[in-house]
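Q: Protein A?
A:
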Amino acid sequence: MSRRPPLENVYQLPLSYRATIPEDYLDEMGHMNVMWYTHLYGLAIRDLLAGLGLDRAYIEREQHGTFALEKHLRYFAEVRVGQQVSVYTRVVGCNGVRYHLLQFMVNDTTEQLASSMETVSAHVNLTERRSAPMPPEIASAFAEMAAQHDQLSWQPPVCGVMGVDK
């Protein structure tokens, strides 16, 4: 499969975030600056994690959170000011400490896949600043979502060098 899945595949995934691009996201080329892709993907991950129980209250109460370990970002089509984008997220795997996500940004205005970002992150003890096992209920929520996404008829177009066991 191409690293660029058709939109009908992407739309099978949960919508994680939606935004309209403001003028201050522009760069000198007249399109959204690369740093804002990472920002929007980060907001989508935040919302996904909150839905799995890893929200601000959990972070403050348990002194645990997540750190990104690796990212792979691909650009397919421009995003410009005033356009609406949506981020869809697929859980590729989770081993109880690390999780592997693949996200897709769709430019709703032009109906094009704008980019994808693959991420491996770790659950961490914020006091020790080291990886730590997820609580069973969060690990189970990740595993359930990964199993649901595994049932899709298409393979995730991962880069091949990242994963929870690498």
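Q: Protein B?
A:
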Amino acid sequence: MHVWSVANQKGGVGKTTTVVSLGAMLAEKGKRVLIFDLDPQGSLTSYFGHNPDDMDNSAFNLFANKGKVAEDLPGQLLLETSQPGLFLLPASTALATLERNVSQQDGMGLVVSKTLAHLWDDFDYAIIDTPPILGVLLINSLAACKRLLVPVQTEFLAIKGLERMVHTIAMVTASQKRTLDYLVIPTMFDRRTQASLKALRTLREQHEGHIWQSAIPVDTRLRDASREGLGINQLAPDSRGARAYQSLLKSLIALG
């Protein structure tokens, strides 16, 4: 199983859109894909028409047994989506209580890794949507993944926020004594504005070697896809957003 986490310590940069778009396109290629919602806000869960406030069976259940994950539990939490081959492990707002309740318990940073180990032979890819806050959930996602994808809106404040994420990556990998491949993905790019063009140039200069050389454009069809609960490949496969995510996916597959 290939495990990717999509993370940034700034919200509104396109994390959930990236998870859904890549996941749906992989499933369209015949892969079995798990998309894993670790964000208490539940944007990924809401994308497919579920209410995070009402989820009795969710990622929260995985953290209920002091870091131990029963072998049959992850499979019981999975939900089908609008894309055949794409399965959702949903979030609930109860995840927001984990920080104060379990963050000091031993083994709580490896719950997601243990969950994926139980599902390892069932999926080709797992893509994790993460909260924009450094805590036990983000630590879990970084510990579990082999590649980190960092969407960054092409505007000045988002670039400043990226500095926090890069610092977090360095801190976590040092504590785990391993390297973590990460890729910065410029999003919401509008080539008509000087601000967006300048931001993209700055990203490329500051993160050489860790940045995807293209960008995800502003495209209202991505918002339309979210409203319909569909991947952009299902709703508007010839749109600018769909073509950009197809290009990103091709780059990620080439990286291995």
